[in-house]
Design goal:
mainly alpha
Length: 269
């Protein structure tokens, strides 16, 4: 695909800001314990890291997160069985760069996770989330080893959360979701500076697939742009784990078959 077209489409999608608020489907079972536990665990880990590792003195040319490097997903280390190896695919899922990174991920996890957990059960949801984290890491490591050399670390829960979104997409793609829709001007690419302007949002009931697939489209376009840069002998610093997102989403859509309750399947017929 032409890089200019990719950039144009990506910028166009970035203009629209979608924020899901609630859906019409009520939970049939009890409290979403696993979703709550995952959110709490991510918050606790972030607070612990932010007030310890992130506060440690470091050289000006060194990143503030250097202290958690062994726990991050580094393709080079995983392939060469160094550090934590494949286990870092799990530990990196509970690490976040800053408060905004954490809050954004936890909001999406809480919104989609409760309904998916309701459809699978507590233990099955925990397994689904973990498996999606590994499929996200598998995709990320495989692609980034080729296009970046495998030395750029990745971390964050977004890959596993993308899997939860994939499961939700499979289960409730046409579910109406109250979504705040607004437009904004923001950095469309990591290399293009900009600013943010969000007018009064418009609440609309949209099918769930609109929000989810809009996120997938952004990741796919940005990932394709990185691949095009690689073909030209360049490395595009994405700053976003787009390949992890895609891998997690595919994992969620695949593994939900293993964990969905039979009565949920029967109810969809």
């Amino acid at each position: 695909m032409n890089p200019t077209l990719i950039i144009f489409l990506y910028i166009f999608l970035q203009i629209f800001f979608l924020l899901p608020i609630k859906d019409k489907r009520s939970r049939r079972r009890g409290f979403p314990w696993v979703t709550t536990l995952l959110v709490a665990l991510n918050v606790v880990v972030y607070i612990g890291v932010a007030f310890t590792v992130y506060q440690q003195p470091h050289e000006p040319d060194q990143p503030y997160w250097l202290g958690i490097y062994p726990f991050m997903e580094v393709p080079y280390l995983i392939i060469n069985h160094e550090g934590l190896g494949a286990l870092s695919a799990l530990t990196s899922t509970y690490l976040h760069a800053d408060t905004g990174h954490l809050l954004g991920n936890m909001f999406v996890l809480w919104f989609f996770g409760r309904k998916v957990e309701d459809a699978t059960g507590h233990v099955s949801f925990a397994l689904l989330y973990t498996l999606c984290g590994f499929t996200a890491s598998l995709m990320s490591v495989s692609v980034n080893t080729i296009i970046t050399g495998g030395h750029i670390p990745g971390f964050g829960a977004s890959g596993a959360i993308a899997g939860v979104m994939g499961a939700y997409l499979f289960l409730y793609s046409n579910e109406k979701v109250l979504t705040l829709v607004s437009t904004w001007l923001a950095p469309a690419l990591p290399v293009i500076p900009g600013f943010c302007f969000i007018p009064i949002p418009i609440p609309l009931w949209l099918p769930a697939w609109v929000f989810i697939l809009s996120q997938v489209a952004k990741d796919a376009l940005l990932g394709q742009l990185a691949i095009e840069a690689y073909k030209l002998g360049q490395t595009l610093p994405l700053g976003v784990g787009v390949f992890a997102h895609i891998g997690g989403l595919l994992g969620g859509m695949l593994f939900i078959y293993l964990f969905i309750r039979p009565e949920v399947v029967a109810g969809q017929r």
